[in-house]
Amino acid sequence: MEHEHVRDVDPAVADALESEVDRQRSSLQMIASENHASRAVIDAQGSALTNKYAEGYPGSRYYGGCEYADEVEQLAIDRATELFGAEHVNVQPHSGTQANQAVYFAMLEPGDKILSLDLTHGGHLSHGHPANFVGQFYEVEQYEVDPDTGYVDYDGLAEQAAEFEPDIIVSGYSAYPREIEWDRIQNAADDVDALHLADIAHITGLVAAGVHPSPVGVADFVTGSTHKTIRAGRGGIVMCDEEYADDVDSAVFPGGQGGPLMHNVAGKAVGFEEALQPAFETYAEQTVANAKALGESLAENGFSLVSDGTDNHLVLVDLRESHPDTSGGDAEEALEEAGIVLNGNTVPGETRSAFDPSGIRAGTPALTTRGFDEDDCRTVADLITRVVDAPEDDDVVAEVREEVEQLCAANPLYE
Ligand code: DSN
Asked: Where is the Serine hydroxymethyltransferase-like domain (predicted)?
């Protein structure tokens, strides 16, 4: 068999792949759940391990030829254990959603009760939205953030738990800018004898670096994704105490998945090794400092931020007061034209819809990876302001596009 490159066999896909790298190089990736994995992680994910079936776990597989798969998976497990301090780690979930699925499948029966944060308040589809299997297989009630502060209403959550008597409470969010008080949610769970699943998908890297408090050792289960703030390539992870290890492992495989994506597990191993280096802590601190600078500048420019700021890697802007005629979708579209890629997002108390929401969510993980500092992020806030103030002005959009390209050139990516 010839070992040709993509370009030799499929110019159409090769062109699209090159264009995607150019797109990432020449525009600002501010979708809060995205990042730029290192070449090393991308190499590992693009490796021949994609060919290998390895159902089972290291040392106990259903197929032969797994010695290197075993080595790679054990390295990923050992490094994750060192990073997070969990008693048990499963690195096989294909995504954060499948990590959550594994916990539900391991611990709940159909019809059992889940208490989780509403999607429009910052939750996630896999926490119980009716369009997701979770909302259909289990009985779900949702808690909310305090409408006045934008912070999780921990007291309200505890009262709701006492009334609803959930089997599991889900914490950890996808559009929540503030530090999460794991203890308070754990106390609410303990009071009603419920389990607690902390989904750190967005903040996996911040937790690994010690920049956000860790729920490991507090919550019964901690799930995460490995390609957001931690830059370890596409995938998910589950962590738990030893008492749940067998149940979780069986729920991942064979419960919810077949063969693990061993090339992705290799990416996780490499990314975790990178995250163990001192430079990663600096990166995570800078990511948060950049988000704070971005948020402060946006606020100075007249935008209203949910919770008035951020403690993590993202800001959530509510456009309703400052730009009542501009939806999050309008802003997203104009900003993308200008080379600033983020997403329209629902906000607490949403009055539009998920398809045409009232806010925008902006994150700094990818900008920080390419070298942006606080001054750069203040500049980015000004660029965002100019576009959102005049989303239909082609001249403004074109001027901002040029300035975005200068910023990108000054902070090169994948050279
Ligand atoms: N799609 C991810 C996000 O943007 O938050 C979560 O799965």
From this structure: 7-384
d(CA 244, CA 221): 9
**DSSP 3-state of 116:** strand
Asked whether the predicted pLDDT for residue 355 surpasses 90, the reply is no
DSSP category for residue 68: H
Rg (Cα) of the chain, in Å, rounded?
21
Q: Is the CB of 33 under 6 A from ligand 1?
A: yes
Pocket of ligand 1 contains residue 174 by CB under 6 Å: yes
pLDDT digits (tens, 9 = 90+) for 357-385: 999 999 999 999 999 999 999 999 999 99
Domain boundaries of the chain, sorted by first residue:
43-275, 279-410
Which ligand 1 atom is the nearest neighbour of the CA of 225? 7
- CA atoms of 122 and 171, how far apart (whole Å): 10
* Secondary structure element (H or E) that encloses residue 15, with its range: helix 11-26
Q: Is the pLDDT of residue 3 over 80?
A: no
Confidence of residue 1 (pLDDT cuts 50, 70, 90): low
Tell me: the pLDDT tens digits for 264-278?
A: 999 999 999 999 999
Start-to-end CA distance of the chain, whole Å, equals 31
Segment 14-33, tens digit of pLDDT: 999 999 999 999 999 999 99
**pLDDT value, residue 2:** 65
CATH fold of 279-410: Aspartate Aminotransferase, domain 1 (3.90.1150)
In tens, the pLDDT along 283-320 reads 999 999 999 999 999 999 999 999 999 999 999 999 99
Question: Residues annotated in the binding site for (6S)-5,6,7,8-tetrahydrofolate, as ranges?
Answer: 119, 123-125, 242, 353-355
Answer yes or no: pTM beyond 0.90.
yes
Sign of the dihedral through C-alpha 227, 230, 233, 237:
negative
Q: Whose CA is nearest to atom 3 of ligand 1?
A: 33
> Same fold for the domain at 43-275 and the one at 279-410?
no
Q: Which residues contact 270 (CB under 8 A, 6 or more apart)?
A: 38, 40, 41, 43, 44, 232, 233
Q: Where does 43-275 sit in CATH, by number? A: 3.40.640.10
